[in-house]
Design a protein that fits this description.
Length: 126
């Protein structure tokens, strides 16, 4: 309370919560995971989706090592970013909601493909 006796915490503006307008884009993006999960109920579709995630991860792993190898000066920075990315995906897995099974599997297989691409490029140097 100040000199005037007005308490800003009790004003009606602070008690009112403003919600954002729900647009069609926002609802479509929000429902995309559920639609993808329904679409991938077929085991062959799920397997193809998971295989694509692993291959895309492998592609990114190969690309990052190629770019870091060409630049030469960015090797420690690239290694730091790779380790941080892998650790963040592992921590995301531990704290995730168990109902989000498909996105978690996609993230895990993309990480495995990414690390496999890194190891394969590393063995090429030996």
């Amino acid at each position: 309370m100040g000199i005037t006796g007005f308490n800003p915490a009790s004003s009606p503006e602070t008690k009112m919560v403003r919600r954002l307008q729900s647009t069609r884009l926002q609802t479509n993006v929000g429902e995309a995971i559920q639609r993808l999960d329904l679409w991938s109920r077929n085991p062959w579709r799920r397997l193809s989706l998971l295989t694509l995630a692993a291959l895309i991860g492998f592609l990114f792993g190969s690309a990052i090592t190629s770019v870091a190898g060409v630049l030469g000066q960015m090797d420690p920075v690239a290694a730091l970013l790779v380790v941080l990315g892998a650790e963040l995906t592992i921590r995301r897995r531990r704290s995730s909601d168990p109902s989000l099974k498909l996105p978690q599997q996609l993230l895990d297989l993309a990480r495995v493909g990414f690390l496999y691409g890194l190891f394969l490029e590393g063995f090429k140097l030996i």
